[in-house]
Amino acid sequence: MSQITKEAVVDILENIAQMLELKGENVFKIRAYGNAARALETFTGDFAKTVAESQLTEISGIGKAIAEKITEMVATGQLAYFEILKAEFPPGIFEMFELQGLGPKKIKILWDTLGIVTMAALEKGCKDGSIAALRGFGQKTADNILKAIEDRKKHAGIFRLGEIAPDAELLLQELRELPDVSQVSIAGSYRRRKETVRDIDYIVATRVPDPVSDYFVNHPTVESVIARGPTKSSVRLKSGIQADLRVVTNEQYPFALAYFTGSKEHNIAIRNRALARGWTLNEYRLAPDEKSKKMPEPIPPIYTEDDLHRALGLDYIAPELREDRGEIAAAEKHQLPKLIEVQNLRGTFHNHTTASDGRNTLAEMAAAAQELGLQYLGIADHSKSSYQAHGLELDRLLKQIAEIRELNKQWDGSFRLFAGIECDILKDGTLDFPNEVLAQLDYVVASVHNSFSMPEAEMTHRIIRAISNPYVNFMGHLTGRLLLSREGYQVNVPAVIDAAADTGTIIELNANPRRLDMDWRWWPLAKQKGVKCVINPDAHTTATLQFLYFGVGTARKGWLTKEDVVNCLPLGKIETVLASKRKGVK
Predict the structure, then answer these.
(1) What's the pLDDT tens digit per position in 500-526?
(2) Do 462 and 450 form a contact (C-beta atoms < 8 A)?
(3) Kind of pairing between the strands at 416-419 and 376-379
(4) Alpha helices, DSSP H, located in 89-134
(5) On the chain, which terminus has fewer CB atoms closer than 10 Å, C or N?
(6) pLDDT confidence of 586, banded at 50, 70, 90?
(7) HSE-CB of 18 using CA atoms within 13 angstroms
(8) Rounded distance, CA 307 to CA 300, Å?
(9) Neighbour-count burial of 202, counting CB atoms closer than 10 A to its CB (0-12 exposed, 13-18 middle, 19+ buried)
(10) CA–CA dist 555, 389 (Å, integer)
(11) What is the 3-state secondary structure (H, E, C) of 403-431?
(12) Which stretches does DSSP call E strand in 147-254?
């Protein structure tokens, strides 16, 4: 029997809440399932143990009836109530929930009034004007839905890195524990920490391929088997992504790992270096090139990728850098940077609490940060213009500042909460609070949350005006993109980087896997201009503080070191950075 994960249970509870809303059920019943999903999502304890010991009701937000349903899911791998409920709806209607900006209320109206229950019918309704004619919709809504459909088609078969990471890492760990496996790694774009991936490649070294392949194709995370062969097997995981297993010998392993890690362009450049030495390099070996007109150089023993790079006259190149963007030349000249590591982080600043749209309290967020080994945590709830996120009016902001100051007394300098705000950048580039309010905070994150359709020149001016404010420390999620669901707004990124350099503003690397913004491709330029980075998880729960992991991967891909990232500074030094832009302000 497959072991259902906490994440799968959360998804089912959220789906039940959506279906109940479609049915027009009691609002309290709908809310109960939504609250239970959020409570379980933020639960950091041992899920399996909590279920086994019948302690689910001790989690705030989970009542007896829903606890029984969760227990049924864990015990049987499914939930009868969910299956019965799902059978009441046309199958195609669930795809519509995946579209940005289309929630249960609108889906119910479309179903009740126009009989729209499939993506094809939805697209047709947007094009023929029937959806625009509906009360509460209009042409703009129809256009937005149509764009969401087009974006979904464009991104079909592509997955966000953070979306597939739990299954990918679980399968990796369990392959590693097999007695017949001597070496195993994930390769491909996942290993290179690309923001989106199309598949997951597992490279396994073993002397007995059959048991390993059998385990792989029968793993609980597998939905279907695409192919099963002696050295390669392919499956479709329940998350929807394809996973490939390649079984090699220990001798072949470093070559297979390097080859299947890629990128294609990097591999071509590496193979050319091998050819220049009279060698041929493929996914299985490094050998003398029989077609070479020159005498091949002696080939040293190769046991690891490090050995392979050294044989080619290179320092070891971290997987994140293998994009043929200067890493080979730098490796040849011993000029590769010592990339940032997760353990280098000492704190983080862009985090939300129940005061705005977060799901945990100040105290809970502080405790979770300390459990992660952080020395400080910045709280940056939304400002008042983000009404959809329950943004803070002045009185609630001042109250939160006072609460933070009071909480800090208990730690006696061993840990600190910093009082901040994620302050909306208004359409004209001014900020949501005046300077006399911002001056009372330890720091300010400035972000764009509306008017995304401005022309590039206007948006660029808007952002530059905002970051020119002496109280703005950090520019939040610079392009506003949501990977695979919303393109970033038009902005001249190099111009903003130049302005950040001129004003001493730090640019955020938003580590939420849906954002990973600013994009890794821009960080070498920012680094060259002297612009510092702050890696922030944009955490709305205690659990999502761990998004820092994805941020570090993106920072590494952008060639950043711990010296480039301000939140690698410890308490006692980070305060100087936060205060530096305000110097001279009267």
Answers:
(1) 999 999 999 999 999 999 999 999 999
(2) no
(3) parallel
(4) 93-96, 104-114, 119-128
(5) C
(6) low
(7) 20
(8) 8
(9) buried
(10) 28
(11) HHHHHHHHHCCCCEEEECCEEEECCCCCE
(12) 159-160, 181-186, 196-197, 199-206, 222-228, 232-237, 242-248
Residue-wise pLDDT for 329-353, tens only, equals 999 999 999 999 999 999 999 999 9
Q: Which residues contact 252 (CB under 8 A, 6 or more apart)?
A: 205, 283, 284, 285
How far is residue 384's CA from residue 116's CA, in Å, rounded to a whole number? Answer: 37
What percentage of the chain carries pLDDT values higher than 70? 99
Beta-bridge partner residues of 196: 160
What is the CA angle 150-151-156, rounded to 5? 100
The stretches of 53-137 forming alpha helices (DSSP H) are 64-76, 80-86, 93-96, 104-114, 119-128
The separation between the first and the last C-alpha atoms of the chain, rounded to the nearest angstrom, is: 67
Spatial neighbors of 264 by CB under 8 A, at least 6 apart, are: none
Pairing verdict, β 159-160 and 196-197: antiparallel
Structure tokens that stand for 238 in this block:
């329940």
Q: What are phi and psi of 476, to 5 degrees?
A: -85, 150
Q: Which two tokens stand for residue 347?
A: 């704190």
What angle separates helix 104-114 from helix 119-128, to the nearest 10 degrees? 80
Q: Tokens 């009267």 label which residue? A: 586
Residue 549 pLDDT > 90: yes
Domain architecture of the chain: domains with CATH: 6-154 (1.10.150.110), 159-250 (3.30.460.10), 262-332 (3.30.210.10), 342-580 (3.20.20.140)
Q: Each residue of 123-152: pLDDT tens digit?
A: 999 999 999 999 989 999 999 899 888 877
DSSP string, 245-283: EEEE-TTTHHHHHHHHH--HHHHHHHHHHHHHTTEEE-S
- Say which DSSP state 134 is in: S
| Residues of the chain by 3-state class (helix, strand, coil), percent to 5 | 45, 15, 40
Quote the tokens at residue 60.
Answer: 């705030």
For the chain, what percent of residues have pLDDT higher than 90?
A: 80
Tell me, rounded to whole angstroms, the distance of Cα 312 from its chain centroid: 34
User: Which range among 171-180, 288-297, 495-504 shows the weakest confidence by mean pLDDT?
Assistant: 288-297
Q: Measure the CA–CA gap between 201 and 168, rounded to whole angstroms.
A: 9
